[in-house]
């Protein structure tokens, strides 16, 4: 199995709870809270670990919340490579309204990082004892971190022969793609922002993804489409997987579960098409878990055989 390293420059502790009804002014008596490690790369590492893969998660920790984050990551059995920053690691929280089934997600900004702090993350990657087979760069950038942060990491790592996998948005995505990725996983909103096009139908989705591949910005695009499934686009083929008939309990973590399963499958030697199948299964499996919980291994195995793919 290829070694996997994930990098999360803006981690969080994800808090999830529920309340009967959300109303202003009054105190809302919530159910017992669940605390999970969060941030794109950490979530990808958690999914890889759930699927019995070996992974190292690189991330900063700040203050008391950062130490708590380190403890709950280690409690899940994930190997972490951390570095200290001055300000507190952020919290994010999700509240399920029982009466309606609506889910409210509150995402707080990360602590601002100084240049010496974010440079520590690059140094952690540079000083890994072994060059990773796959490096996953995932999540938003906190204040103080330059838009080309992922691009800087990519310039360093691509000389190692490492497969670069990217899941971010906005200027960070645009800058990183100039360095060339192996795989990028935008959702439809992120692809629209990147291309500055409306992308209203399948034909336009495929064209936008192929444009990225033909421009040399990435070898593979895995486009997640929510309740419309997903697309996998390479230089030679395009696959479409319709969404599985699942009633969502929570949409939190579906994208990270998709990415984690794809990365695990690729590192395990599966073909790209089979990795895509695992990604769709894991993203679907995340929909039937509550709060900020990610996919479960048994659900991924159950749904894997139900994923239907066809060539466009």
Tell me what you see in this structure.
The longest helix is centred in the last third of the chain and has 15 residues, at 272-286. The chain has a single domain, classed as UDP-N-acetylmuramoyl-L-alanine:D-glutamate ligase, CATH 3.40.1190.20. It is built from 10 helices and 14 strands. The chain has 312 residues and is of the alpha/beta class. 47% of the residues are buried. A hairpin with a 5-residue loop joins strand 6 and strand 7 (103-107). The two termini are 31 Å apart. It is globular, with a radius of gyration of 19 Å. The strands form 2 sheets. A 10-stranded mixed sheet has the order 5-4-1-8-9-10-11-12-13-14, with helices on both faces. A 4-stranded mixed sheet has the order 3-2-6-7.
CATH-defined superfamily = Ribokinase
Q: What integer value in Å does the Rg equal?
A: 19 Å
What general form does the structure show? globular
Mean pLDDT over all positions: 96
Distance between the termini: 31 Å
Strand content: 15-25%
- CATH C-level class: Alpha Beta
Helix-strand pattern, N to C? EEEHEHEEEHEHEHEHHEEEHHHE
Write the layout of secondary structure elements.
Blueprint: E1 4-7, E2 12-19, E3 34-38, H1 40-50, E4 55-62, H2 63-75, E5 79-85, E6 90-97, E7 103-107, H3 115-126, E8 134-138, H4 149-157, E9 163-167, H5 170-177, E10 181-184, H6 188-195, H7 202-214, E11 218-224, E12 230-233, E13 238-241, H8 254-267, H9 272-286, H10 297-304, E14 310-311
Parallel strand pairs: 1-4, 1-8, 2-6, 4-5, 8-9, 9-10, 10-11
Antiparallel strand pairs: 2-3, 6-7, 11-12, 12-13, 13-14
